[in-house]
């Protein structure tokens, strides 16, 4: 017997002044903060995300910064899409998340549904997991400091002309709340079978737990 699912859907609305990619990043920032609080320091939470408009990125997508307003973004939208579905197996979990309050500052740019019970039969499930690129400049600098015992200034100088190789996976532009630095949250989707496990990171992603696709 399939488990019961509840969900809310967030849609980023087209706007002449702000790109969909920028708004999506702001939405994900707020969802991440809400999940950190709901997990209460455990790093595991009962809320999972899906991206219904997810598509494989083209080379043009890879070279486009989704935080900036571009003709490409306006016409096609970022590869990650303009929608986020927020899933739980209890309506209480979604009500406690209180997305309407979390996203109140963005309501001119997003549409948020009420909490809905998923009534339809689901035949497709997918895993959405985070993938971290190995060519991050900051990550390489930290690695050099640890391996070679270099101070930060010396390690940074070694990578002064470093040009990162971007993953071709769809991503969301986000901001680290500990360092205030921007980063790309790369997300990989793969089809999977539904399972009993229901555990996600504070980004609403998992390498093993599948969410409904419809």
Fold topology:
Blueprint (H helix, E strand, L loop, with lengths): L5 E7 L7 H20 L8 E3 L8 H4 L8 H6 L6 E6 L2 H7 L1 H4 L7 E3 L3 E2 L7 E7 L5 H12 L3 H7 L12 E5 L6 E11 L18 E2 L2
Antiparallel strand pairs: 1-3, 1-4, 1-5, 2-3, 6-8, 6-9, 7-8
Helix pairs in contact: 6-7
Task: Provide a descriptive summary of the structure in words.
There is one protein chain. The protein has helices at 20-39, 59-62, 71-76, 91-97, 99-102, 137-148, 152-158; strands at 6-12, 48-50, 83-88, 110-112, 116-117, 125-131, 171-175, 182-192, 211-212. The protein has 214 residues and is an alpha+beta fold. The chain has a single domain (6-212), classed as Alpha-Beta Plaits, CATH 3.30.70.2540. The strands form 2 sheets. Strands 1, 2, 3, 4 and 5 form a 5-stranded antiparallel beta sheet that branches. α6 (137-148) crosses α7. Residues 61-75 have low confidence and may be disordered. GO terms for molecular function: endonuclease activity; hydrolase activity. InterPro entries: CRISPR-assoc_prot_Csy4, CRISPR-Cas6/Csy4_sf. This is CRISPR-associated endonuclease Cas6/Csy4.
